[in-house]
Amino acid sequence: MAEIVGLREAVAALVRDGDTVAMEGFTHLIPHAAGHEIIRQGRRDLTLVRMTPDLVYDQLIGMGCARRLVFAWGGNPGVGSLHRFRDAVEHGWPRSLELVEHSHAGLANAYVAGASGLPFAVLDGYHGSDLPVHNPDIRPLTCPFTGRRLAAVRAIRPDVAIVHAQRADRRGNVHLWGIVGVQKEAVLAAARSIVTVEEIVDELDAPPNACILPHWTVTAVCPVPGGAHPSYAQGYYDRDNGFYLAWDGISRDRERFRAWMERCVLGTEDHAGYLRAAGITLPPERTS
Amino acid sequence: MSLPWTPEEMMAIAAARLLPDGRTCFVGIGLPGTAANLARRLHAPDLVLIYESGPIGARPPVLPLSIGDGDLARTADTVVPTHEIFRYWLQNGRIDIGFLGTAQIDRFANLNTTVIGDYRSPRVRLPGAGGAPEIAAHAGETLVILRHRRRAFVARLDFVTTVGYLDGGDARERLGLRGRGPTRIVTDLCILEPEPESRELVVTSVHPGVAREDIEANTGWPVRFAPAVTTTPEPRPEELEALRELRARTEAAHGRPSGE
What is the pTM of this model? Predict the structure, then answer.
């Protein structure tokens, strides 16, 4: 039964040191505000899961919150490297980072298995790739009916899934749309979940096939306007591409990264404070 | 000799020409997006662009910076969950062309986007596989686009992320993959194709103004040339105009760095 609470209380109650945490969002609806709150509260030894770790995972890794990363593609989309991720893998700074590495198809299937109550998923994938050599969660499997060679991937079952969505109603039913990625699967695979939303509305008035997380599948719903920035929320604001470009410079240098995190995240109370400190104006949605 | 176009423009245009109208194309991040959206503005208005984040039939007005920009969802025929893209659409054989970039490639068109050096203590950690291993396995054929540099065209990959033709010959067939594999590699110098029997990449078309020595000097193995090498037709004015207009609008839309 979803409780509508503040983000600080939700993170304090639901995210613990050592947890496996999946913060999903495929470019769209990335839960940046929640990631910042985890950093503010100083969580440690997390196993972070995400298909496409980008800036918020770079920040969590650079601040030493993670000991393991389960992922498929880690970069600054259209810009280049994630410098904090690279520094952790290449130089162990600020601590070493264990990698559990998949392809997109493999990890997406692993979430579906988690949401389906299965121990593993089956896919026609990874043939000839070196990925299974380094990841024991990918195993060969022979089809019992045809003898075809397939791959099995261990299910993802996070302790906590965290996603951002456009809206929830006052009972905590969540409605998201646009690029929905694996958010629904992540929430349904997890033991606990936090959904940050742009706004709470009286009525969702969603069409019957809309992507809905019923209130009883979500642990906490937290209103955080702008909570996806620099990612975007379709129908509310656009992706702040300028910030993704700027992050390349901010994150390249350890000292500059630390200073930015101190000023914009650790030194601020909440997401509104972050937006003010970083001088962010949410980009209006472009329609043509 | 100075040409009225850049090698980068030649590369995008040469790649765009390889995308036939009306086919379905799974578009990878980076350079493929430029070429695929250019093709849509030129000879292939009904090229169906499919992005791994979920949009099917996207018609973005500017080049997306990421693989999941709002323009893709807003202009798509439908947007499906990510697992569905990989299961119902790619794995089930509904994609004609997989279009990939890469950090490194070897002479049998295997791709490395994972690490340079040892996996556990790499010299350079690259982004990783993304959708590439299964795109290259299941798409009817695969196109690869990358800049032609010696550090990218290497004799031996430190890590095989995505399979082309493994060690050549019928090695790919023996793996039982659905797709034919990489059929054309487009660079800023030339186009390479797998030789019919050995499956080793050979140069089949050299871009105007490029010398064979330039290609040899930028390839990390003794690269061979097909018996009948052609010269890539130079960019036509309408191709250059469409590409430059797309780039200018993209730059205006994505703006300058912010939040520092």
Answer: 0.97
